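Retry 2 of 3 after timeout on previous attempt. Resubmitting structure tokens to design endpoint.
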């Protein structure tokens, strides 16, 4: 997709690409600012190259305006998601509690996996399934 965006921008030329610049920059910006652990470095390099190409093509001023608008839009979306999450914890405390428990469980599992990878002889205790215990009648 990034190669396609670069080819289209070169094909359209300086004047016809300007209205589409924010649309083209959005996925490139997202790839540059992603913080995922399994991030592909070739994609990051490719997006950087296409950004440089666009900068040369349209000029620094037009590029800067479009890039700042994309940045602003991304920051607004991020803030809105954060605000909605905070509102959801107040509105639906049971859903928030379940999410928090799931996050803590995943954190503990990750910690156990990390310890096992660092010390292969160590086997962390796994949480047992309580499915049968929940079904049993306990007095």
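Retry 2 succeeded. Sequence:
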């Amino acid at each position: 997709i990034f190669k396609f965006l670069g080819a289209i921008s070169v094909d359209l030329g300086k004047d016809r690409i300007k209205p589409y610049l924010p649309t083209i920059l959005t996925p490139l910006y997202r790839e540059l600012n992603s913080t995922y652990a399994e991030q592909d470095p070739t994609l990051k390099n490719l997006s950087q190259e296409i950004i440089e190409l666009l900068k040369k093509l349209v000029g620094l001023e037009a590029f800067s305006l479009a890039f700042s608008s994309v940045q602003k839009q991304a920051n607004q979306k991020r803030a809105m998601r954060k605000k909605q999450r905070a509102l959801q914890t107040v509105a639906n405390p049971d859903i928030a509690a379940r999410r928090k428990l799931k996050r803590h469980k995943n954190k503990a599992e990750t910690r156990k996996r990390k310890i096992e990878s660092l010390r292969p002889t160590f086997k962390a205790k796994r949480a047992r399934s309580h499915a049968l215990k929940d079904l049993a009648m306990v007095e």
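Attempt log closed. The first helix runs from residue 2 to 17.
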